[in-house]
Specification:
Oligomer: single chain
Strand content: 15-25%
Helix content: 40-55%
Number of helices: 5
Largest sheet: 5 strands, mixed
CATH topology: Trna Endonuclease, Chain: A, domain 1
Number of strands: 5
Radius of gyration: 15 Å
CATH architecture: 3-Layer(aba) Sandwich
CATH class: Alpha Beta
Distance between the termini: 33 Å
Number of domains: 1
Structural class: alpha+beta
Length: 162
Amino acid sequence: MNRVVRGTVKWFVLLPALTEGADRRISSLVLRLGEYLRTENLEALFETMSAIFASIPYTLNAKRDEAYFHTIFYLMLSASGTDVQCEPLTSEGRIDLAVLFSDKVYLIEFKCDQRADMGIQQIQDKRYADRYRGEGKKLILIGINFSPERRNLAERNVVVEP
């Protein structure tokens, strides 16, 4: 079991505490995330994710590293009812997240205090998309950089492959 999956149980228990004090709209926002991905409304997805991260109180003492942001992102997408795979393995490494739909696959790579294009570069360099080629699905590569200082999404980059 990898570190993110092991930590997921802890975060699943802690997620309600992380959003304690946030207004009640957060749970309904989480439910919209899957629909935004299904319809490829990525602006709404990123805006909503930023709003959810902004609702987590700064007083929480959790370490804001890539694993923290990765886990929260994974839990939110899972809670939205989306078919999300955490760290699926390929012949060249592991993808941070893969989100599967009947007509498309999102490959998401997270960075913390780096650049979002480095996530895209990693997906391409390690040929993560090869695992899903031949299925006739659109491949959407997403690099996301998080800012530990702002405790939120800092930058994103999207590349659509036919």
